[in-house]
Amino acid sequence: MQDVNVMNMCTKTLETKRLILRKFTLDDAEGMFNNWATDSKVNKYLSWNVHKDVKETRNIIEKWISKYEDGNYNWIVEKKDTHEVIGSICEEGKSIKNKTISLGYCYGSKYWNNGYASEVLRRVIEYLLTEEDFYLVEANYRSSNPASGKVMEKSGMKYDGTLRDRKIDPDGKRASVIYYSITKNEL
Fold first, then answer.
1. What are phi and psi of 77, to 5 degrees?
2. Burial (CB count within 10 angstroms: exposed 0-12, middle 13-18, buried 19+), residue 41
3. pTM confidence score
């Protein structure tokens, strides 16, 4: 049995000045579909294809919701003023033994360059390193998407290293994978 005192393992609602981070619901399918799941500008940096219809988005959200019981971290990001869903931030892997977690995030292109991604990443890092007691949070991005690296830097993360030519972007070009992290001691 897992020691529950080690970590709460919970996607709990978090807030920033402008945004709400909460669990996905099936009601979010249309907003996700319209705001980033069909955005070809977003897709060129991801491993999944644009969604063909809202049913595909709903099916993925159903899978994510079922993983909350297993302690999976997966937040949808909603603007406080309009309640519009604009993106997501989630766990891409974790080690309970080593107290490390890897994050990934995705926002619709019409929301880029507003500081939302770094605002959310900072809040999630703070939560994971203090309330959830992880020791290290990491993230990575493809070299073809340097703006994502700037988000990590603005969030206090430090450069760890580059794995050369590890991914192939949807346009067929090779991209390196660049890693950043932050430890509890660096908060």
1. -105, 125
2. exposed
3. 0.93
